[in-house]
Amino acid sequence: MLTGTAPTSRMEEETVMALACTLYERGARAESFRLLRRLSASGKRTAPLLYNMALCLEEAGQGEQAVSCLEKALSCLSGGKRERLPTGDEEALRILYERQCGQAEYRFPMRAEEAACLPDYARERILRLLIDLCARRNDGARVRSLAASLPGRRFDNVEKALMHTAEKEG
After folding, report:
1. How far apart are CA 94 and CA 46, in angstroms?
2. How far is CA 73 from the centre of its chain?
3. Looking at residue 97, which CATH number applies to its domain?
4. CB neighbourhood size of 109 (10 A)
5. Least buried of 21, 102, 107, 134, by fewest C-beta within 10 Å?
6. Does residue 3 lie within any of the structural domains?
């Protein structure tokens, strides 16, 4: 199933997404992107899928398409499309994902369940990558606007992006 048609069940979608994340982490970006495209072609539009596609597109030098994916990912989160976790103790899952995500860098793939369980964390990761891409495009106004929408904490990449755009503008 993983090499042929589009996934047909939720379990198959989750399996394909997990495999795409693992492939990306192991450096097989093209294979990861191929699987993510298959999920997208099946009509699946989730924040993790779009974020992961953006990571691949950025790696391929397709910044405009990556920005578009990240904007769509943000709209998935703010559009109320959060899914309830299907089974299990949601509080235990939330705690485990918080610990797992606390160890991850923002430029690694986002697992499907992370956005459902930790939407604020997913939003933060999407914004951080979007800030990087906007800084590369010398879009200082957008960098400042996005940075201002990040609550409380400051991040090294955001600080660098703000400095980079200030230097380019000044």
Report:
1. 19
2. 7
3. 1.25.40.10
4. 22
5. 102
6. no
